[in-house]
Amino acid sequence: MYKKPSEHQISIFDFNQSCGTPLDENNEWVRLANAIDWTSLEKVYASLFPSHEGRQAFPLRVALGALIIQKREGLSDRRLVKEVAQNPYYQYFIGMDRFSDTCPFKPTVLVYFRRRLDSRFLMMANEEYLAAGAATPEHAGDKPEKSADGENVGTFILDATCSPSNIKYPQDFVLLNDAREKLEEMIDYFHHQYHPWTKPRTYRRRARKEYLAMAKAKKRPTKKLRSLIRKQLGCLNRDLRYLEAYMTEGYALPQKYIDCYLTVQKLYEQQKYMFDNNTHRVDDRIVSISQPYIRPIVRGKAKSPVEFGAKYDVSIDEKGHARLEKLQFDPYNESSVLQDAVERYKERTGHYPVRVLVDQIYRTRANRAYCKEHGIRISGPRLGRPAADHKANREEYKDNTDRIEVERFFSREKRCNGAGLIMTRLAETTLASIALSVYVTNLFAIPTGNLFVLYFADCGYGPETAQFIEMDDAT
Predict the structure, then answer these.
(1) Are 350 and 260 members of one domain?
(2) Domain assignment of residue 124, yes or no
(3) How many whole angstroms separate alpha carbon 32 and alpha carbon 327?
């Protein structure tokens, strides 16, 4: 059950703090609380509670405000509760009308906040905030742009990245050992519940000893590794037959084991296929038993050639506004996102951009033809012989320089706003955590306080380059 709060926004002068000390109106959390349109988000949030019975849910401002604070400050659930109980600015931000030495929610409630505020809701909230910011004339001297009939205006930057999840690096023999231990736990459950007089042989001590010998070895020869994997596959096959025999007799697994059992079955099929065919490639490869939805994403970076998490595309327009264009766990080719992203840009602004700044993987012949058809200049060298005129070379250099803005956004998102390592464990909350990182990065990038200053460089046909200057927190 959800009941809309009577007050959506209170003044800092109405906030009753201990000793009568007023809040600082220039504090970043006070400014951000005044910049977010809680009323419009409240209407959408209320529609998520169709039932009028049950315990009353927390208001949107408490739920969304708590997640924004947690993402921005990098706090755990328990630490967030302690910080909110001690900080009056946090309490004002989540909509409390007076200072209290206790937090209005428990750490366990944050799990439901993350489930309720999914990625679609957060992307909608981000879009509303950016639309309100674009309509505000005092935002860093932003001049409204107008496009004549058929005239292109503005700049569109697009790039993809990956936010790795908090899992250990997957290795085949480690995954098989974990799966073996999971199945042995299920066999023990059936033994204690239904068959205390007999127990099937699993040879777990021998399998554990062989695994530890390989895990502790400094060198792992291919022949020994394949021999260990062959033995582990045999253990999994035997344990799966035991469990099937139990379930054939009418015994059922408890709910907490069902997802794990299905995941181990699929893992065994994939590992058996790769072992028989002597390959390391398979579709929808499982790299974590507890999080089977995670996929390996090939990045090609020197530090981490492969990352394990969700992949997503982010676009940035000439105003410095960032949006999620695509978000999913399965790897995909980024070039397929460009045309749909540019069309969504046209729906928002009513015109196509003058130029699209992308890296090499987006510059396919289909995308080049699409941009040429709509009068858009795509960054990078043209096909064929290099241009001899200096103007084309200057444009190419400037495009490559301005494209760094999206890399700067990724840096802030991962270093400051929690996208560098996703700690959630469910598929829906992982996607929501990434969408929240993009949203929070926008909240603190657009000049609502004293944290960032956004200014534009006019290049003849409108603001082209958005630069963010981080100011000292002490100022």
Answers:
(1) no
(2) no
(3) 26
pLDDT tens-digit readout, 294-319: 999 998 777 788 999 999 999 999 98
Flag whether 128 is in a domain: no
Lowest mean pLDDT among 34-43, 197-206, 435-444, 454-463: 454-463
- The answer to whether residues 317 and 445 belong to one domain is yes
Residue 112 lies inside a defined structural domain of this protein: yes
- What's the predicted TM-score (pTM) here? 0.86
- Phi, psi dihedrals of residue 307, rounded to the nearest 5°: -120, 155
Domain that holds residue 380: 145-167+295-470
H or E element at residue 166: none
User: At 449, which CATH number?
Assistant: 3.30.420.10
Structure confidence at residue 181 (pLDDT): 96
The predicted structure's pLDDT at residue 132:
83
* 302-310 own/partner pairs: CB under 8 Å, 24+ apart: 304/164, 307/162, 307/164, 308/164, 308/165, 308/167, 308/169, 308/170, 309/162, 309/163, 309/164, 309/165, 309/422, 309/430, 310/162, 310/163, 310/165, 310/422, 310/430, 310/431, 310/434
**Residues 313 and 396 grouped into a single domain:** yes
Our count of domains for the chain comes to 3
Q: What is the pLDDT of residues 27-36, one digit of tens each?
A: 999 999 988 9
Asked whether 5 and 59 are in contact (CB, 8 A), the reply is yes
Please indicate, yes or no, whether residues 156 and 182 belong to a single structural domain of this protein: no
> Do residues 228 and 274 touch, judged by C-beta distance below 8 A?
no
Mean pLDDT for all residues in the chain: 85
Residues 264 and 303 occupy one common structural domain: no
Lowest-confidence pick of 349-358, 413-422, 425-434, 464-473: 464-473
Residue 5 lies in a domain: no
Question: Rounded to 5 degrees, what are φ and ψ at 65?
Answer: -65, -40
Most confident of 7-21, 121-135, 222-236: 222-236
